[in-house]
């Protein structure tokens, strides 16, 4: 019997965001008709605000969904006094002032990995 261990690189909640950004980046590149990596990076740098807006909108929707689920859980806990309180798994993070410095090369690395793996 062989045991296989799978390492998940991205959390399920991150995959939708990555796909949305990659899809928009692909549209920008295809519409502009660029053919080189340096032209693509320059184009993405010009449109970084567009890509950032996708990320912000995605995170806002996710935050609202988590808040709604949390409120529903709190309401259920208030209604069921026999249940054990659940741990609070919320966290706060500080957003970098220029996330594109990391994010643009990272997305390109993901794109290259996907293309070379298929």
Provide a short characterization of the protein structure.
With 118 residues, the protein is mostly helical. It is 69% helix and 0% strand. The mean pLDDT is 75.
Characterize the structure shown:
The protein has 118 residues and is an all-alpha fold. The chain has helices at 12-32, 37-46, 48-79, 100-117. The longest helix has 32 residues, at 48-79. It is built from 4 helices and no strands. The model has no long low-confidence stretch (mean pLDDT 75). Helices cover 69% and strands 0% of the residues.
Name the shape in a single word: elongated
The number of helical segments is 4
Quote the average pLDDT.
75
The radius of gyration computed from the alpha-carbon positions, rounded to a whole number of angstroms, is 20 Å
Q: What is the CA-CA span between the terminal residues?
A: 28 Å
Summarize the biggest pleated sheet: none
Structural class: mainly alpha
Q: How many strand elements? A: 0
Low confidence ranges: none
Strand content: under 5%
Helix content: 55-70%
- Tell me the series of helices and strands, N- to C-terminal: HHHH
Task: Name some characteristics of this structure.
4 helices
Topology record:
Blueprint: H1 12-32, H2 37-46, H3 48-79, H4 100-117
């Amino acid at each position: 019997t062989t045991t296989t261990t799978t390492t998940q690189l991205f959390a399920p909640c991150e995959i939708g965001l990555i796909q949305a950004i990659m899809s928009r980046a692909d549209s920008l590149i295809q519409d502009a008709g660029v053919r080189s990596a340096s032209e693509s990076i320059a184009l993405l740098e010009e449109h970084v605000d567009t890509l950032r807006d996708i990320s912000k909108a995605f995170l806002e929707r996710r935050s609202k969904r988590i808040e709604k689920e949390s409120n529903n859980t709190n309401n259920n806990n208030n209604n069921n006094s026999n249940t054990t309180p659940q741990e609070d798994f919320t966290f706060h993070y500080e957003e970098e002032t220029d996330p594109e410095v990391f994010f643009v090369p990272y997305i390109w690395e993901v794109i290259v990995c996907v293309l070379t793996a298929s």
